[in-house]
Design the sequence.
Protein backbone atom coordinates (compact mmCIF):
# COMPACT_ATOMS: atom_id res chain seq x y z
CA UNK A 1 0.00 0.00 0.00
CA UNK A 2 1.21 3.51 -0.75
CA UNK A 3 2.30 5.77 2.05
CA UNK A 4 1.77 9.47 2.43
CA UNK A 5 4.13 12.03 3.83
CA UNK A 6 2.99 15.55 4.68
CA UNK A 7 5.81 18.08 5.00
CA UNK A 8 4.99 20.96 7.29
CA UNK A 9 6.97 24.18 7.72
CA UNK A 10 6.19 26.29 10.78
CA UNK A 11 7.36 29.40 12.54
CA UNK A 12 9.49 27.28 14.86
CA UNK A 13 10.59 24.22 12.93
CA UNK A 14 9.62 21.55 10.41
CA UNK A 15 7.46 18.52 10.99
CA UNK A 16 6.94 15.38 8.93
CA UNK A 17 3.55 13.68 9.20
CA UNK A 18 3.37 10.11 7.89
CA UNK A 19 0.57 7.61 7.34
CA UNK A 20 -0.35 4.69 5.16
CA UNK A 21 -2.72 5.10 2.24
CA UNK A 22 -5.77 5.01 4.51
CA UNK A 23 -4.61 8.33 5.98
CA UNK A 24 -6.17 7.64 9.37
CA UNK A 25 -3.28 6.98 11.74
CA UNK A 26 -0.51 9.53 11.56
CA UNK A 27 2.97 9.63 12.97
CA UNK A 28 4.48 13.02 13.69
CA UNK A 29 8.21 13.61 13.57
CA UNK A 30 9.84 16.88 14.57
CA UNK A 31 10.50 19.58 15.26
CA UNK A 32 13.36 19.54 12.82
CA UNK A 33 15.45 22.74 13.02
CA UNK A 34 13.56 23.75 16.15
CA UNK A 35 13.35 27.48 16.73
CA UNK A 36 13.92 28.40 13.07
CA UNK A 37 11.29 29.59 10.65
CA UNK A 38 10.72 26.97 7.99
CA UNK A 39 9.06 28.74 5.12
CA UNK A 40 8.89 25.66 2.93
CA UNK A 41 9.76 21.98 2.76
CA UNK A 42 9.53 20.40 -0.68
CA UNK A 43 10.13 16.92 -2.07
CA UNK A 44 11.64 16.04 -5.41
CA UNK A 45 9.10 14.39 -7.72
CA UNK A 46 12.03 12.49 -9.24
CA UNK A 47 13.34 11.05 -5.96
CA UNK A 48 10.92 10.76 -3.04
CA UNK A 49 13.76 10.66 -0.53
CA UNK A 50 15.21 13.97 -1.67
CA UNK A 51 13.78 16.82 0.38
CA UNK A 52 14.73 20.48 0.53
CA UNK A 53 13.90 22.89 3.34
CA UNK A 54 14.16 26.65 3.59
CA UNK A 55 15.29 27.48 7.12
CA UNK A 56 15.66 31.07 8.24
CA UNK A 57 15.80 33.29 11.27
CA UNK A 58 15.85 36.98 11.97
CA UNK A 59 19.07 36.42 13.89
CA UNK A 60 21.05 34.08 11.67
CA UNK A 61 19.65 34.53 8.17
CA UNK A 62 19.01 31.94 5.51
CA UNK A 63 20.00 28.28 5.56
CA UNK A 64 18.97 25.60 3.08
CA UNK A 65 18.79 22.02 4.31
CA UNK A 66 18.72 18.89 2.21
CA UNK A 67 17.72 15.36 3.11
CA UNK A 68 18.58 12.33 1.01
CA UNK A 69 16.68 9.86 3.19
CA UNK A 70 13.16 11.22 3.34
CA UNK A 71 13.76 13.54 6.26
CA UNK A 72 15.49 11.14 8.67
CA UNK A 73 18.70 13.16 8.45
CA UNK A 74 19.47 16.58 7.04
CA UNK A 75 22.55 18.51 5.94
CA UNK A 76 22.96 22.23 5.43
CA UNK A 77 23.79 23.02 1.82
CA UNK A 78 24.38 26.25 -0.07
CA UNK A 79 22.93 29.52 1.18
CA UNK A 80 24.71 32.01 -1.06
CA UNK A 81 21.90 33.82 -2.86
CA UNK A 82 23.81 36.61 -4.51
CA UNK A 83 21.93 38.70 -7.05
CA UNK A 84 23.71 38.65 -10.37
CA UNK A 85 25.23 41.94 -11.48
CA UNK A 86 23.67 45.21 -10.38
CA UNK A 87 21.09 44.65 -7.68
CA UNK A 88 18.83 47.30 -9.21
CA UNK A 89 16.03 49.07 -7.41
CA UNK A 90 12.35 48.65 -6.69
CA UNK A 91 9.87 50.93 -4.95
CA UNK A 92 9.67 51.00 -1.17
CA UNK A 93 6.36 51.42 0.68
CA UNK A 94 6.77 55.21 0.65
CA UNK A 95 7.34 55.27 -3.09
CA UNK A 96 11.08 55.90 -2.94
CA UNK A 97 13.56 53.68 -4.80
CA UNK A 98 15.23 50.99 -2.75
CA UNK A 99 17.89 48.46 -3.77
CA UNK A 100 16.93 44.83 -4.10
CA UNK A 101 18.28 43.08 -1.02
CA UNK A 102 18.13 39.36 -0.26
CA UNK A 103 16.12 38.48 2.86
CA UNK A 104 14.92 34.89 2.67
CA UNK A 105 13.70 32.04 0.51
CA UNK A 106 9.94 31.66 0.57
CA UNK A 107 9.47 28.73 -1.76
CA UNK A 108 11.46 25.82 -3.15
CA UNK A 109 10.35 24.05 -6.31
CA UNK A 110 12.25 20.88 -7.20
CA UNK A 111 12.47 19.90 -10.85
CA UNK A 112 10.00 17.31 -12.09
CA UNK A 113 12.72 15.03 -13.43
CA UNK A 114 16.08 15.83 -11.81
CA UNK A 115 16.49 15.54 -8.03
CA UNK A 116 19.54 17.83 -8.10
CA UNK A 117 17.73 20.69 -9.83
CA UNK A 118 15.65 22.95 -7.64
CA UNK A 119 14.33 26.49 -7.97
CA UNK A 120 14.05 28.99 -5.12
CA UNK A 121 11.85 32.06 -4.82
CA UNK A 122 13.41 34.89 -2.85
CA UNK A 123 12.44 38.03 -0.99
CA UNK A 124 13.31 40.60 -2.39
CA UNK A 125 11.79 39.08 -5.49
CA UNK A 126 14.22 36.98 -7.49
CA UNK A 127 14.37 33.49 -8.89
CA UNK A 128 17.34 31.22 -8.22
CA UNK A 129 18.19 27.76 -9.50
CA UNK A 130 20.55 25.07 -8.35
CA UNK A 131 21.58 22.11 -10.50
CA UNK A 132 23.86 20.47 -7.92
CA UNK A 133 21.46 19.54 -5.17
CA UNK A 134 21.36 23.04 -3.66
CA UNK A 135 25.09 23.25 -3.05
CA UNK A 136 25.31 26.35 -5.24
CA UNK A 137 22.69 28.75 -6.52
CA UNK A 138 22.56 30.91 -9.63
CA UNK A 139 20.05 33.65 -10.15
CA UNK A 140 17.93 33.76 -13.30
CA UNK A 141 18.32 37.54 -13.43
CA UNK A 142 15.98 38.35 -16.31
CA UNK A 143 13.05 38.40 -13.90
CA UNK A 144 14.52 40.88 -11.40
CA UNK A 145 15.81 43.02 -14.25
CA UNK A 146 12.49 43.02 -16.11
CA UNK A 147 11.72 46.56 -17.33
CA UNK A 148 8.79 46.73 -14.89
CA UNK A 149 10.92 45.83 -11.83
CA UNK A 150 11.74 49.40 -10.77
CA UNK A 151 7.98 49.89 -10.25
CA UNK A 152 7.47 46.75 -8.14
CA UNK A 153 6.42 47.47 -4.57
CA UNK A 154 6.31 45.05 -1.65
CA UNK A 155 3.10 43.78 -0.15
CA UNK A 156 2.66 43.84 3.61
CA UNK A 157 4.50 40.52 3.90
CA UNK A 158 7.48 41.73 1.90
CA UNK A 159 8.32 41.63 -1.78
CA UNK A 160 8.43 37.89 -2.01
CA UNK A 161 8.53 35.51 -4.92
CA UNK A 162 6.24 32.91 -3.38
CA UNK A 163 4.96 30.79 -6.25
CA UNK A 164 6.95 28.81 -8.81
CA UNK A 165 5.24 26.49 -11.27
CA UNK A 166 7.40 24.39 -13.56
CA UNK A 167 5.04 23.68 -16.41
CA UNK A 168 3.90 20.10 -16.64
CA UNK A 169 4.03 19.94 -20.43
CA UNK A 170 6.66 22.43 -21.57
CA UNK A 171 10.08 22.21 -19.89
CA UNK A 172 10.89 25.77 -20.96
CA UNK A 173 7.78 27.29 -19.40
CA UNK A 174 7.85 28.67 -15.85
CA UNK A 175 5.22 30.65 -13.98
CA UNK A 176 6.05 32.75 -10.93
CA UNK A 177 4.09 35.11 -8.72
CA UNK A 178 5.37 38.01 -6.65
CA UNK A 179 3.68 40.06 -3.94
CA UNK A 180 2.85 42.72 -4.96
CA UNK A 181 4.17 42.75 -8.51
CA UNK A 182 1.93 40.08 -9.98
CA UNK A 183 2.30 36.96 -12.09
CA UNK A 184 4.91 36.36 -14.77
CA UNK A 185 5.56 33.65 -17.34
CA UNK A 186 8.72 32.58 -19.08
CA UNK A 187 8.63 30.47 -22.22
CA UNK A 188 12.38 30.13 -22.54
CA UNK A 189 13.48 28.62 -19.24
CA UNK A 190 13.77 31.95 -17.43
CA UNK A 191 15.74 33.93 -20.02
CA UNK A 192 12.85 36.38 -20.48
CA UNK A 193 9.58 37.07 -18.71
CA UNK A 194 6.12 38.29 -19.62
CA UNK A 195 3.79 39.86 -17.06
CA UNK A 196 0.52 37.88 -17.19
CA UNK A 197 -1.90 40.02 -15.24
CA UNK A 198 -4.49 41.00 -17.85
CA UNK A 199 -7.97 40.83 -16.42
CA UNK A 200 -6.94 41.32 -12.81
CA UNK A 201 -8.74 44.13 -10.99
CA UNK A 202 -7.20 45.51 -7.81
CA UNK A 203 -8.77 48.41 -5.96
CA UNK A 204 -5.49 49.05 -4.17
CA UNK A 205 -3.78 50.36 -7.32
CA UNK A 206 -4.88 53.37 -9.36
CA UNK A 207 -4.57 51.89 -12.85
CA UNK A 208 -6.71 48.79 -13.22
CA UNK A 209 -5.03 47.94 -16.50
CA UNK A 210 -1.52 48.14 -15.08
CA UNK A 211 0.60 45.22 -16.26
CA UNK A 212 2.14 44.87 -12.77
CA UNK A 213 1.29 45.88 -9.22
CA UNK A 214 -1.36 43.26 -8.47
CA UNK A 215 -1.00 41.37 -5.22
CA UNK A 216 -1.20 37.79 -6.39
CA UNK A 217 -1.29 35.45 -3.40
CA UNK A 218 -1.03 32.06 -5.07
CA UNK A 219 -1.34 30.33 -8.44
CA UNK A 220 -1.94 26.66 -9.08
CA UNK A 221 -1.88 24.45 -12.16
CA UNK A 222 -3.19 20.97 -12.78
CA UNK A 223 -0.60 18.91 -14.67
CA UNK A 224 -3.14 17.51 -17.11
CA UNK A 225 -4.34 20.98 -18.20
CA UNK A 226 -1.25 23.18 -18.16
CA UNK A 227 -2.92 26.18 -19.81
CA UNK A 228 -5.53 26.38 -17.05
CA UNK A 229 -4.34 28.22 -13.96
CA UNK A 230 -6.27 29.25 -10.89
CA UNK A 231 -5.33 32.27 -8.79
CA UNK A 232 -6.11 33.52 -5.31
CA UNK A 233 -5.41 37.21 -5.40
CA UNK A 234 -5.39 39.65 -2.48
CA UNK A 235 -9.08 39.94 -3.26
CA UNK A 236 -10.70 37.78 -5.97
CA UNK A 237 -10.34 34.23 -7.17
CA UNK A 238 -9.63 33.93 -10.88
CA UNK A 239 -8.87 31.48 -13.65
CA UNK A 240 -7.15 31.62 -16.99
CA UNK A 241 -7.57 29.15 -19.82
CA UNK A 242 -4.71 30.43 -21.94
CA UNK A 243 -1.70 30.28 -19.61
CA UNK A 244 -2.22 33.75 -18.27
CA UNK A 245 -3.14 35.58 -21.45
CA UNK A 246 -6.41 36.66 -19.87
CA UNK A 247 -7.85 36.07 -16.39
CA UNK A 248 -11.50 36.07 -15.39
CA UNK A 249 -12.95 36.21 -11.95
CA UNK A 250 -14.69 33.13 -10.54
CA UNK A 251 -15.28 34.35 -6.98
CA UNK A 252 -19.00 33.81 -7.44
CA UNK A 253 -20.84 33.08 -4.21
CA UNK A 254 -17.82 32.90 -1.89
CA UNK A 255 -18.55 34.59 1.47
CA UNK A 256 -15.29 36.52 0.97
CA UNK A 257 -12.97 36.36 -1.98
CA UNK A 258 -9.96 37.38 0.09
CA UNK A 259 -7.61 34.57 0.98
CA UNK A 260 -4.17 33.12 0.53
CA UNK A 261 -4.00 29.47 -0.63
CA UNK A 262 -5.61 27.81 -3.60
CA UNK A 263 -5.36 24.16 -4.63
CA UNK A 264 -6.65 22.04 -7.47
CA UNK A 265 -7.96 18.51 -7.07
CA UNK A 266 -5.35 15.90 -8.01
CA UNK A 267 -7.65 13.99 -10.37
CA UNK A 268 -10.15 16.60 -11.49
CA UNK A 269 -8.55 19.66 -13.07
CA UNK A 270 -11.79 21.63 -12.76
CA UNK A 271 -12.14 21.22 -9.01
CA UNK A 272 -10.57 23.98 -6.96
CA UNK A 273 -10.25 24.69 -3.24
CA UNK A 274 -9.86 28.00 -1.39
CA UNK A 275 -10.10 29.08 2.24
CA UNK A 276 -11.91 32.43 2.42
CA UNK A 277 -10.57 34.95 4.91
CA UNK A 278 -12.74 37.84 6.07
CA UNK A 279 -10.65 40.74 4.77
CA UNK A 280 -7.20 42.12 4.16
CA UNK A 281 -7.03 43.40 7.74
CA UNK A 282 -9.10 40.66 9.39
CA UNK A 283 -7.05 37.58 8.65
CA UNK A 284 -9.51 35.01 9.96
CA UNK A 285 -12.48 33.13 8.52
CA UNK A 286 -15.81 34.92 8.16
CA UNK A 287 -18.13 34.34 11.13
CA UNK A 288 -15.44 32.44 12.98
CA UNK A 289 -16.22 29.35 10.85
CA UNK A 290 -13.31 27.56 9.22
CA UNK A 291 -14.66 26.57 5.83
CA UNK A 292 -12.88 25.26 2.78
CA UNK A 293 -14.79 26.12 -0.37
CA UNK A 294 -14.83 23.85 -3.40
CA UNK A 295 -15.74 24.85 -6.92
CA UNK A 296 -16.06 22.73 -10.01
CA UNK A 297 -14.15 25.35 -11.96
CA UNK A 298 -16.80 28.03 -12.09
CA UNK A 299 -18.47 30.52 -9.83
CA UNK A 300 -20.53 28.08 -7.77
CA UNK A 301 -18.76 27.27 -4.52
CA UNK A 302 -19.82 24.84 -1.83
CA UNK A 303 -18.73 25.10 1.78
CA UNK A 304 -16.87 22.08 3.15
CA UNK A 305 -17.31 22.10 6.90
CA UNK A 306 -17.56 18.52 8.08
CA UNK A 307 -14.87 18.12 10.74
CA UNK A 308 -13.77 21.75 10.72
CA UNK A 309 -14.48 24.14 13.63
CA UNK A 310 -17.67 26.11 12.99
CA UNK A 311 -17.50 28.55 15.86
CA UNK A 312 -14.92 30.80 17.47
CA UNK A 313 -12.23 29.98 14.92
CA UNK A 314 -9.95 32.90 14.10
CA UNK A 315 -6.94 31.34 12.43
CA UNK A 316 -5.45 32.13 9.04
CA UNK A 317 -4.18 29.78 6.34
CA UNK A 318 -1.08 31.01 4.55
CA UNK A 319 -0.51 30.84 0.80
CA UNK A 320 1.82 27.82 0.80
CA UNK A 321 -0.09 25.93 3.51
CA UNK A 322 -2.49 23.91 1.35
CA UNK A 323 -1.68 20.82 -0.67
CA UNK A 324 -3.23 17.77 -2.29
CA UNK A 325 -2.07 14.19 -2.62
CA UNK A 326 -2.47 11.95 -5.65
CA UNK A 327 -4.01 8.95 -3.92
CA UNK A 328 -7.48 7.77 -4.88
CA UNK A 329 -9.65 9.29 -3.55
CA UNK A 330 -7.58 12.44 -3.56
CA UNK A 331 -6.44 13.98 -0.30
CA UNK A 332 -6.43 17.63 0.66
CA UNK A 333 -4.42 19.17 3.52
CA UNK A 334 -3.99 22.58 5.04
CA UNK A 335 -2.27 24.10 8.04
CA UNK A 336 -3.31 27.11 10.10
CA UNK A 337 -1.68 29.88 12.04
CA UNK A 338 -3.13 28.17 15.11
CA UNK A 339 -0.91 25.16 14.51
CA UNK A 340 -3.56 22.73 13.30
CA UNK A 341 -2.98 20.60 10.23
CA UNK A 342 -6.24 19.28 8.82
CA UNK A 343 -6.52 16.47 6.30
CA UNK A 344 -9.28 15.11 4.13
CA UNK A 345 -8.96 11.75 2.43
CA UNK A 346 -12.13 12.18 0.39
CA UNK A 347 -11.52 15.30 -1.62
CA UNK A 348 -12.73 17.64 1.09
CA UNK A 349 -16.07 16.06 2.03
CA UNK A 350 -14.84 15.30 5.55
CA UNK A 351 -11.92 16.64 7.54
CA UNK A 352 -9.99 15.65 10.63
CA UNK A 353 -7.07 17.25 12.41
CA UNK A 354 -3.83 15.35 11.92
CA UNK A 355 -2.12 17.42 14.57
CA UNK A 356 -3.50 20.33 16.55
CA UNK A 357 -0.84 22.22 18.41
CA UNK A 358 2.12 22.96 16.18
CA UNK A 359 3.62 26.43 15.88
CA UNK A 360 1.95 28.62 13.25
CA UNK A 361 2.02 26.71 9.98
CA UNK A 362 3.74 28.39 7.04
CA UNK A 363 3.68 25.62 4.46
CA UNK A 364 2.23 22.19 3.75
CA UNK A 365 3.22 19.77 1.02
CA UNK A 366 1.91 16.25 0.44
CA UNK A 367 4.02 13.47 -1.00
CA UNK A 368 2.82 10.00 -2.01
CA UNK A 369 5.44 7.31 -1.50
CA UNK A 370 5.53 4.04 -3.43
CA UNK B 1 44.28 28.67 20.90
CA UNK B 2 41.23 30.93 20.46
CA UNK B 3 38.10 29.77 22.24
CA UNK B 4 34.73 30.62 20.66
CA UNK B 5 31.29 30.06 22.16
CA UNK B 6 28.49 29.88 19.63
CA UNK B 7 24.78 30.37 20.37
CA UNK B 8 22.75 27.17 20.60
CA UNK B 9 21.22 27.45 17.13
CA UNK B 10 24.61 27.84 15.47
CA UNK B 11 26.07 24.99 17.53
CA UNK B 12 23.28 22.80 16.19
CA UNK B 13 23.88 23.99 12.67
CA UNK B 14 27.64 23.37 12.90
CA UNK B 15 27.07 20.16 14.87
CA UNK B 16 29.39 21.11 17.68
CA UNK B 17 28.96 20.97 21.42
CA UNK B 18 30.83 23.11 23.87
CA UNK B 19 33.40 25.62 22.76
CA UNK B 20 34.98 25.78 19.34
CA UNK B 21 38.78 26.07 19.38
CA UNK B 22 40.67 27.80 16.61
CA UNK B 23 44.39 27.62 16.05
CA UNK B 24 45.19 31.11 14.81
CA UNK B 25 48.39 33.11 14.47
CA UNK B 26 48.57 36.77 15.44
CA UNK B 27 47.14 39.26 14.85
CA UNK B 28 43.93 37.99 16.39
CA UNK B 29 41.06 40.16 15.26
CA UNK B 30 37.30 39.73 15.08
CA UNK B 31 37.50 39.36 11.30
CA UNK B 32 40.19 36.67 11.45
CA UNK B 33 38.31 34.71 14.10
CA UNK B 34 35.12 34.81 12.04
CA UNK B 35 36.98 33.96 8.83
CA UNK B 36 38.55 30.94 10.53
CA UNK B 37 35.24 29.91 12.03
CA UNK B 38 33.52 30.03 8.64
CA UNK B 39 36.37 28.16 7.00
CA UNK B 40 36.18 25.37 9.55
CA UNK B 41 32.38 25.34 9.55
CA UNK B 42 31.19 26.49 6.10
CA UNK B 43 27.55 26.10 7.10
CA UNK B 44 28.04 29.15 9.33
CA UNK B 45 28.72 31.40 6.33
CA UNK B 46 26.08 34.07 6.19
CA UNK B 47 24.71 33.35 9.67
CA UNK B 48 26.86 35.85 11.59
CA UNK B 49 27.87 38.24 8.84
CA UNK B 50 26.10 39.30 5.69
CA UNK B 51 27.53 37.34 2.79
CA UNK B 52 27.62 40.31 0.48
CA UNK B 53 28.79 43.14 2.72
CA UNK B 54 30.66 41.18 5.38
CA UNK B 55 28.89 43.26 8.01
CA UNK B 56 27.66 41.78 11.28
CA UNK B 57 24.04 40.66 11.06
CA UNK B 58 21.82 43.05 12.94
CA UNK B 59 20.76 40.63 15.69
CA UNK B 60 24.15 39.04 16.27
CA UNK B 61 26.50 40.38 18.95
CA UNK B 62 30.15 39.69 19.75
CA UNK B 63 31.22 39.82 23.40
CA UNK B 64 34.44 39.06 25.24
CA UNK B 65 35.77 39.83 28.71
CA UNK B 66 32.45 41.39 29.74
CA UNK B 67 32.66 43.86 26.88
CA UNK B 68 30.43 44.32 23.86
CA UNK B 69 32.76 44.30 20.86
CA UNK B 70 29.96 44.23 18.30
CA UNK B 71 30.52 47.72 17.04
CA UNK B 72 34.31 47.67 17.24
CA UNK B 73 36.27 47.60 14.02
CA UNK B 74 36.56 43.97 12.85
CA UNK B 75 40.26 44.59 12.36
CA UNK B 76 40.97 45.74 15.92
CA UNK B 77 42.99 43.23 17.97
CA UNK B 78 40.84 41.24 20.38
CA UNK B 79 41.56 41.52 24.14
CA UNK B 80 44.72 39.81 25.39
CA UNK B 81 42.79 37.34 27.49
CA UNK B 82 40.99 36.12 24.34
CA UNK B 83 44.29 35.95 22.45
CA UNK B 84 45.81 33.90 25.27
CA UNK B 85 42.81 31.59 25.41
CA UNK B 86 41.91 32.64 28.93
CA UNK B 87 38.54 34.01 27.90
CA UNK B 88 36.24 32.92 25.05
CA UNK B 89 35.00 35.06 22.21
CA UNK B 90 31.22 34.93 22.48
CA UNK B 91 28.82 34.98 19.53
CA UNK B 92 25.43 35.95 20.88
CA UNK B 93 21.92 36.03 19.43
CA UNK B 94 20.66 39.46 20.49
CA UNK B 95 17.59 39.91 22.66
CA UNK B 96 15.13 40.59 19.86
CA UNK B 97 11.89 38.86 20.73
CA UNK B 98 10.80 35.67 19.04
Sequence:
Amino acid sequence: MSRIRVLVGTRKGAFVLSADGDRRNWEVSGPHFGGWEIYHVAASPADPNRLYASQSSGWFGQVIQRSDDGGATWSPVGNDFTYEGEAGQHLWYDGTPRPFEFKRIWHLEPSRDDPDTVYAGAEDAALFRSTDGAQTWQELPALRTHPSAPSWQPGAGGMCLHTIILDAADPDRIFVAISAAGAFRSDDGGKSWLPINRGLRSGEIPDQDSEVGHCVHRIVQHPSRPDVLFMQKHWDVLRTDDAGGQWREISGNLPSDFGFPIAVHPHDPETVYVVPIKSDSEHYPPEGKLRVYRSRGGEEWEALTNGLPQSNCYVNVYRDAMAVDTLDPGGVYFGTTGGQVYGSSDGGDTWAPIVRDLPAVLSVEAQVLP
Amino acid sequence: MIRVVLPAHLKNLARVSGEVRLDLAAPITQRRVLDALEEQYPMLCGTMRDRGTGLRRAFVRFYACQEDLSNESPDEPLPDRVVKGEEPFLVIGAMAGG
